[in-house]
Design brief:
mainly alpha, about 0% strand
Length: about 425
């Protein structure tokens, strides 16, 4: 029995490590494109100008984020029906192929199509990963830490990607020129991320196959308060994704306006990565109880609103450091916290429901990414800063009652469990 328990624990650890790596690769691919998209667009436009470059950069970033709107929920349904492993492998393999295709952008239309397909395949990964954790980990504290590790990996990839793209463009672009094609540095960085996706598809074989265990609906799901809290959490997740999407694209465009080099921008994203990792590591450490994280949501949204406003109005490159760190810390706290509570509220852990979260966050990210380009090209900086900051401030106000509502939901669930 002891030996069997050890083997089960070892298999769970291997599966979790595979899922963490998968999440890292998807985010790495997305992040790598951020600092180099303006350069690609500039090369593909017949008459490039700052307005067109900003607009297409925002829309191309949004194209990746908008694809899960149509595919995340169906991917989740297939994962529930056919098992987590085949959907993970299919998603990662498709992600690798379409990501590699972005290294040969024949024209803007081709680039838009590849970005959409890339987002479609990426949407298969995280819902299945989170659902698999819910399948194998019934303990609330361990499940919360596992969710936190997935979120940390995503944050690491998201912020390491721009660093890789920016630094390789700056350092290797003059060594391996490809003429009219993207520089050798860009080709290298994209192929590395695509190759990592292929490796992740192989690593995903460590996950047990077969259909996931079926769960019955619990009484908590029929409670109106639980549904209300779930909708509120989904709305907050969308607001967070929109804020981060706008932050990433607008920071790239704002840095160009302030003459920040790709290397400096990559270093700035690396700083954000470190801050976000520290924040997530503290919140989901063994010393913090998962249920206490509900008190962090409203303050984190408020701080993020202030930080984003300061990023948008910064007049010098050195004025970006503190506000970007503030936004990163807030996002690092909020992303895993909201995912954990959404999973806890649904009580089913099915990929279809977690795919719904991916859908709403993709909508928020797409709006934020596209909005960044539109705000940058259409409005004065002082006006542009008010819109996203106001949205996040509203999210902070909307989440003030969240701790009490979550506690009521937990108490109701605990009472029904004892009654049984």
């Amino acid at each position: 029995m002891i030996q069997l328990t050890k083997q089960l624990g070892r298999r769970r650890s291997q599966a979790l490590a595979s899922l963490v790596f998968c999440a890292f690769v998807i985010a790495l691919g997305y992040g790598t494109m951020l600092p180099v998209l303006p350069m690609i667009v500039q090369r593909l436009l017949a008459s490039p100008n700052p307005v067109d470059i900003a607009r297409h950069t925002g829309l191309l970033t949004a194209a990746f984020a908008v694809a899960p709107l149509a595919t995340a929920f169906p991917w989740g349904r297939m994962s529930d029906r056919h098992g987590r492993r085949p959907i993970l492998i299919l998603g990662l393999a498709g992600f690798a192929v379409t990501f590699a295709a972005t290294t040969i952008p024949l024209n803007l239309t081709f680039l838009y199509v590849m970005r959409l397909l890339n987002g479609c395949f990426a949407a298969a990964v995280l819902p299945s990963a989170y659902a698999f954790i819910a399948d194998i980990q019934p303990d609330e504290s361990r499940r919360a830490r596992a969710f936190g590790q997935i979120s940390v990996a995503s944050s690491l990839g998201l912020l390491a990607g721009p660093m890789i793209g920016g630094l390789s463009w700056q350092w290797l672009g003059t060594i391996i020129p490809f003429g009219a094609m993207p520089d050798g540095a860009l080709l290298l960085s994209l192929l590395v991320a695509g190759g990592a996706a292929v490796a992740a598809a192989v690593v995903a074989r460590a996950i047990e196959g077969g259909p996931p265990p079926q769960r019955k609906r619990t009484d908590i799901e029929s409670e109106g308060v639980a549904r209300s809290v779930e909708f509120r959490l989904l709305g907050l997740a969308a607001a967070l994704a929109g804020g981060l999407g706008l932050f990433e694209v607008y920071l790239t465009l704002r840095s160009r306006a302030l003459s920040v080099t790709p290397t400096a921008l990559g270093s700035m994203f690396a700083m954000c990565m470190a801050v976000m990792l520290v924040a997530q590591g503290i919140v989901f450490s063994r010393s913090v109880k998962p249920e206490t994280t509900r008190w962090l949501v409203a303050p984190a949204f408020g701080v993020m609103a202030i930080g984003l406003a300061l990023v948008l109005v910064a007049g010098r490159s050195d004025g970006l450091l503190i506000p970007t760190g503030t936004v990163a810390a807030s996002g690092g706290l909020l992303a895993p916290t909201l995912t954990y509570w959404i999973s806890w509220i649904t009580r089913r852990g099915h990929a279809a429901e977690l795919g719904l979260q991916s859908t709403v966050t993709s909508a928020g990210q797409a709006l934020g990414s596209a909005g960044a380009g539109l705000l940058f090209e259409s409005f004065d900086v002082s006006i542009a800063s008010l819109v996203p900051a106001a949205v996040l401030a509203i999210a902070a106000i909307a989440s003030l009652q969240l701790p009490r509502q979550l506690e009521v939901t937990r108490t109701t669930a605990r009472g029904k469990s004892i009654a049984r």
